[in-house]
Amino acid sequence: MIKVGVVGATGYAGSDLMRMLVKHPEVDIKYVTANSYVGKKYAEVYPNFGKHIPLLCSPADLEKVAKECDVLFTALPGGMTAGLLTESILDNTRVIDFGAAYRLKDVKVYEQWYDEHKSPQFIEEAVYGLCEFNRDKIKDARLIANPGCHTTCGILGTAPLLKADLIDRKSIIIDSKTGVSGAGRGLNRDMLFCEANENTKAYKVAGHRHTPEIEEQLTYVAGEDIIISFTPVLVPMNRGILATIYANLKDGVTEADIAAAYEDMYGDEYFIRLSEPGTLPESKWVKGSNFVDIGFKVDSRTNRVIAVSSLDNLVKGAAGQALQNMNIMFGLDEKTGLDQVTPFPV
């Protein structure tokens, strides 16, 4: 059994991870840490876990927990893990970090978009945990930088178009609509019911922190610097992301070329579902699951491709991808604990 500790288990992403871990056949949950609820039963914080987990919430002592666990999931906001991670922790356990601290390889870019980096010495060895791209590196990694939710959706939807050289690389626009759980469980006025319900708004336009992460990963795919226009949009639903990706097609590119590009890249990927021609993804089809649905249309009038990708921001966009990373690290079938059908209606 894999001995697991979850640091920050009472946030939305942490609780979704717990939901999947309690049913994972190869996992023994040793610790759940939550500084705001120390000494309280986890099932008191989330009553839906009643009869599933008897553990108490512990303080986040990573040095102690690392000695007793095979892997730590650090489901902490922003770059918080960077201020806690040490060499001795990584000597004792493997870490899958939900935050942004180790996703970007250039510390100067990180500090431009975030804050001062607390442990830049670990950036080089950290593996970007986009499973479909980096599974060979993930297998032996000590430290995984679990990708962001908008980034996973945008990268997976765009990459085949770049890899097959089908689009004008300077024309990429990603409009990414997200549910309110993406902002976390902390108190935030903009996420109050009366603020978010019956409302749709763009936020952090031309300045969202996921922009450099998308650009960096797409640059690796394209083999040259990629710059995108990225706009996140808050919509009044609990969870889910639907990204609409626009790009100008190169001369002579056909629908068959585009379909072949997606099939070549993702045809063997279990957790990526390519929509049938004429069908585009909807967020409700992936809620609660680790699947990413991708479809496209060609606008012949403007000579653009319009690709649509959708995922659950708390699953494939966070906890599910982290669990998929763990399965790869420990040589398990990637579907273990993740092969769930979305409930409907949701």
Low-pLDDT parts are: none
Strands, total number: 14
CATH class of the largest domain: Alpha Beta
Morphology: globular
Structural class: alpha/beta
CATH topology type of the largest domain: Dihydrodipicolinate Reductase, domain 2
Return the domain count: 2
Instruction: Quickly count the helices.
Output: 11
Order of helices and strands: EHEHEHEHEHEHEHEHEHEEHEEEH
Our Rg estimate from Cα atoms comes to: 20 Å
What's the short story on this structure?
This protein is 29% helix and 20% strand. By secondary structure, it is α/β, with parallel strands linked by helices.
Structure description:
The protein is an alpha/beta fold and 346 residues long. It is built from 11 helices and 14 strands. The strands form 2 sheets. The chain has a 7-stranded parallel sheet with strand order 3-2-1-4-5-7-6. Strands 9-10-8-11-14-13-12 form a 7-stranded mixed sheet. The chain is globular, with a radius of gyration of 20 Å. The two termini are 33 Å apart.
Task: Map the helices and strands.
Layout: E1 2-7, H1 12-21, E2 27-33, H2 42-45, E3 57-58, H3 62-66, E4 71-74, H4 87-92, E5 94-97, H5 107-113, E6 127-128, H6 131-138, E7 143-145, H7 149-163, E8 173-178, H8 193-196, E9 201-202, H9 210-222, E10 229-234, E11 241-248, H10 255-266, E12 272-274, E13 292-299, E14 304-311, H11 315-329
Parallel strand pairs: 1-2, 1-4, 2-3, 4-5, 5-7, 6-7, 8-10, 12-13
Antiparallel strand pairs: 8-11, 9-10, 11-14, 13-14
